[in-house]
TrEMBL record:
Lineage of the species this protein comes from: Bacteria, Bacillati, Cyanobacteriota, Cyanophyceae, Synechococcales
GO MF annotation: an example: (S)-2-hydroxyglutarate dehydrogenase activity
Domain of life: Bacteria
Transmembrane segments: 6-25
Name of the protein this chain belongs to: FAD dependent oxidoreductase domain-containing protein
Native organism: Prochlorococcus marinus subsp. pastoris (strain CCMP1986 / NIES-2087 / MED4)
Similarity-based family: Belongs to the L2HGDH family.
Cofactor: FAD
Amino acid sequence: MSLKNGEIIIIGGGIVGLTIAYQIIKRGISKNIIILEKENNLGLHTSGRNSGVLHAGIYYKPGSLKSKVCIEGGKRLKAWIKDRGLKTNPCGKIIIPTKYEQDSQIDLLFERGLKNGAKVEIINNKKLKEIQPNTNSITNRALWSPNTAVVNPLEIINQLEIELKDKGVIFIKGSKIRKINKKENKIHTEDNLIIKYKYFFNCAGLQSDRVAHMCNVGKNLTILPFKGFYWKIKNNDAFDIKTNIYPVPDLSVPFLGVHFTPSGDKKNIFIGPTATVAFGRENYKFFEGLEPLMLISNLFILSKQYLMNKNKFRQYVHQQSLQAFEPFLIKSAQNLIPSIKLSDIEISEKLGIRAQLFDNKKMNLVDDFICTNDENSTHVLNAVSPAFTSSFSLADLIINSSKLNKE
Ligand SMILES: Cc1cc2nc3c(=O)[nH]c(=O)nc-3n(C[C@H](O)[C@H](O)[C@H](O)COP(=O)(O)OP(=O)(O)OC[C@H]3O[C@@H](n4cnc5c(N)ncnc54)[C@H](O)[C@@H]3O)c2cc1C
């Protein structure tokens, strides 16, 4: 049994935990920070496995936390990356309706984008084809977002780790939390460490609800993991894809639909991610991380959602859940690039799992970020997309709303 002491403990070394540590130091709140990470390396979960898109703030309901932090966070992350000479692909993004009835959503997204402060333009097929050959809008309208960019998420995670270590942050890796003793302000880990804290932030991503439940916080909230498979284009010469190409999403479900994304280093064009029910929160390979009990309970929740058709959930199941199967995926891809065929794509090793929160009381999928304060702790739940883009501003918002800031 070994005892450690930290003024501030951050559980989880993903982008959320790292940027909170970064901002606490930058703002002079504390220099005594321990980051507790259950893996031996950072970036093994969502922050190292996402699309790397720096979103421009178009989709989010004005007034939501997402709308408040996405644009500013994206600008700050871009500047941070530029200062360090890391790679960015400033390729922009187009959003294309794939059904006639989606045409009015272009106006809604345009309005939302403007209200949120994003740069957006409604374009016709002529301009669309100038920006991105081989595409077509069935309604002759699409949305252009010139400020969307793509980065390499792992590069950013690694750089943050280096800088935080330089500033004196202690990383304890390979140590998973077992329990939290709130009376004594102690965190116990599975490898028999006891860490005394003054304040802690729960930034455990896919496991954040379980850590919150250890403190009796968010008992009505459960993470439903959704798997995001990616494919990639074998040879981009035939398609000349240079920008992000997204379908108009169904805004009643929190998934953006299968899209084309150039990588941050411009070497690959990915197609994905899907949003398929995962058999475990860390079920990256078929037999790895299986959680049969969780799966049964999640399938029960999802079937209920399907029957009640809450927030048009049936539409999600019909349109998005089947896209892990190639014939369905290629059909969605062809809605954006009509000439693409199954033989043009191959499955990629890239695979991420979305920590989607479900509210058992309200019986719905939670759309916005949630950060809940308890005695001497803050729990960050539902840090789904665009939490990577927003990270620096989200970190400030979390710190500002925490009890740490009010001491
Ligand atoms: C497929 C996919 C694509 C995405 N694309 C984008 C995108 O293009 N742009 C964008 O802005 N966002 C995107 N996102 C969202 C973004 O990746 C996440 O919002 C963000 O990475 C969440 O970061 P995090 O720090 O909360 O979680 P994580 O990166 O998962 O970090 C949590 C950390 O906590 C650790 N941990 C868990 N439990 C414990 C424990 N008990 N003890 C100690 N440590 C623990 C884990 O090991 C992990 O390292 C995407 C997400 C997915 C799934």
